[in-house]
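Bumping with the actual sequence this time:
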Amino acid sequence: MSGTGTTFSVDLGVAPLPSMNRLGVAVNRVQVRWPEAGGPVERNPESIIERMNRRLRDDDWQGATVAEVLRAARVAYSDGFRTRFKLRRLRRFFVDEVRASRSSGFLGGMMSVYLSTYVPGGDHTRSLALALHEAPDSLTRIRVICGRRPRHKAGMRNWARQGRTPRR
């Protein structure tokens, strides 16, 4: 059949793709309603961090929302921020809140932060995974996703019993 120049057209009955404009509008609506659901990179991450640091420093949580806290966590654990020494207190705050919280919205948002900023062997990944694993028992779905308790946790408990601190 080569060289005949005949082309065949077969209708496979595949529906055309939806308009990307409609899809973009739908995505934007979801991101506006649930910003903690993993929206786009923040336009001004420094101001988000600055505002959260101010709230933490002044212990002023008047008007704070879970979405605002999760937005700051997403920035604090993001690629350009997670190794900043200046933000260690803020990251410690997020880890402590995960351990103490019973809010499924907050814990689910922090699980999203964990998954979206995961780096194998990363300090931020390990500390957040441990905190999520130690979250209240009612949140078994997080335990299922995180898997078993990391081996290094038991080792740290053994160090603590002996009154020593682990080497870094």
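The tokens above came from a reply further down the thread. The longest helix spans residues 20-33.
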